[in-house]
Give the backbone structure.
Amino acid sequence: MSFTFPEYVHNKNVGFILRDFQQDFSRINPCRVYVDFQQTKSFNDFGVLVLTEIKKKTHQANGKLVLRNLSQEVQDILDLVQFSTLPEEVSDLSQKRLPKITIRTGEAFFKCLYDMKKMIFFVGEVFFASLVLIKNPRKLRYNDVIYYMQRVGVDALPIVALISLLLGLIMAFMSSAQLEQFGANIYVASLVSLAMIKELGPIMTCILVSGRSGSAFASEIGSMKISEEVDALTTMGFDTTIFLVMPKIVAAVIVVPLLVVFSDIFAIAGGLIIGVSMLDLTIHSYIHQTMTSLTILDFGLGLLKSMFFALIIAWIGAFRGFQTEGGAQEVGQATTSAVVSSIFLIIVVDSLIAVMLRYWN
Amino acid sequence: MNKRQAVVEVKDVSIGFSSKVIQRHLDFEVYEGEIFVILGGSGCGKSTLLKSIIGLYQPLYGDISLQGMSIKNSQNDIQAYRNILKEIGVMYQGGALLGSLTLAENIALPLHEHTNLNTEEIASLVSVKLALVNLHGFELAMPSELSGGMRKRAAIARALALNPGLLFLDEPSAGLDPILSSELDHLLIKINKNLATTMIIVSHELASIKAIAERVIVLDQDGQGIIEQGPPGHLAEYSKVPYVRHFFHRQPHFSFEA
C-alpha cells in the first residue's frame, strides 16, 4: 500500500487524514506500507502523529513501514521527537494514577499517627515556651500581643454583639410561646441568662473567634512557612513558638473572656427586649429575675471555659499553620482544618466539662 | 587549603524526606574563609542540602557538623544550637523578610535579640547595613513594596546583621540584572576578604560562580551524590564528567540524535 503524505498537516485536517488512512488500511490490509513525502512542504508534530498512527497500524498487522523521499526538514523533526524510539502504546491520560486502597489506608493511618505525635510535641513546646515566658516575661512580644488583642477582640466585637443579641431575642421569643401557657413569663429571663452565661455565650463566641481568628492564625503562619519566613526566624536564633505562637495565645486568652462578657450582656439585652415588648414584663423585674437565677460561679465558670477555648483556638490555628507545606492550596487546607478541628475540640472539651461538673456537684 | 579549619563537615550524608531520598553519599568539608558553591541542575536538592547543613532538616543518614557541633545533637542541646545560629547568617531564595515588619525592623530583629545595643545604636547600624547593599533610604519600606532584587539585597543585609562568620546564600543573584548581579559578587568578595566570612552559596549563575567561587561541588541529577568538585575554572575545562563541562559551558546535555 502506498500513502502519499499530504502537503500540510495541521489541527484541522489531521483527523480526516487519519480516518482516510485507517479506512484504506482496513480495506487493503497490506503487508508493506510505503509513505511518500514527495509532496510534503511542511512537517510538524501533527505530521508525527499521522506517521506514528501509520507505524502502529502497520506493526499491528505485522507489516513493514518504508519511508520514501524524506527531506532533511522531516528527518530533523523526526530526530527531535526521537521517532524511532517513540512508544506506540500510550497510557490513558484520563486515568489518574492512584495507589491501591490498602496503600492509601496505610498511608492515611501513619499520617494520622504522625499528626498526633506532632500535636503532642507542639503541646509540649507551647508549655515550655509558657514556662520560659513566666521566668522571663520580657521575651514576650508585647506589641504583637496588643495587635492580636485588637484583631481577635475589638474587631470581633460588632459581630459577636449582633449575633448574641439576636440569639437572646430568638431564645426569649421561642420560649415565651411555651412559658406563657403556664403564666411563667418571668422565667424567660432565667432561661436566657442561664443558657447564655453557662453554655451558649462561651460556645458561640468561641466558634465565631475560631472562624475569624483561628483561621487567620493558621493562614498567617502557613504562608510564613511557605515563604521561608519561619525558617529565617529559626536561623536567626528565635524560638518560633515564643515569637509567633505565644503572642496569639496570650492575646486570645485575654480578650476572648471579655468578648464572652459582651456576648452575655447583649444576649440578656435581647431577651429583655422581647420580655418588655411582648411579655408585659418590666425592665426591673426582668433584670431582677436574671440576677436571682445566676450565681457568680456560673459567670466565672463561663469565663474560665472561654479561656480554655481561646487557648484551643490559638493553639490549633498555630499548629495547623506550622504543618503547612507546599503552596497556596495547603494554606487553604490548613485554614479549613484549623477551624474544623478547633470547633470540634471546643465542643468535646465543653461536653467533658459539663460531665465533670455534673459529677462534681 | 586542607590546613584551614573545617567549619562545615558533611560525612556520608543522605538528604531528603521520609518518603524520598534526594541525594545520597554526600561527603565534603567547607574550610574557614572559603567561598564554596553548591551546583547542580534544577530540583537536585541544593536548597535541601543547604537547609540540612543549617539544621532545619535532619539528614536521613550520616551526620553534618556545623562549627564543630553535630546537627544530630542539635535537637538535644537547643541552647548550644541557638548559640551556633547566632554565628551564621542565612539568605533565603525569596528573601524571607517578615512581611509585617519594615526593612529596618527586619534587620533590627536579630540585633535586638542578640546584642545589648540600644534602639538608637541599632537604628544607625541598620542604616549602615542597608547602605552596604545599596538600599540606603529604604528603612521604612515594607517588603511588599520592593522589587524581587531589592528584597534579596535586604535579605543579605539581614543575614549580615550580626557579622556572622559563616554566611549561607540560596541563589543570591537569581533575578538580578547583570550589573546588580556583578555588584553583588563584588560585595560578597569584599565581605569575604575584609570580614573573613566563610560563604556557602547555592547558585546557578555561571558568571557569578566563576567570579567568586573558590571551590564548587556539583550534585548528581539522579541523586547519587557529588559528581565533581574543585575550582570552577578548572572544572569547566578539565572535568572528566561531560555533564559538568556542559553545565559550565551552558551546552545542552541530552543530544537530539535519534
Notes: Residues 13 and 46 of chain A are 10 Å apart (CA to CA). The mean pLDDT of chain A is 90.
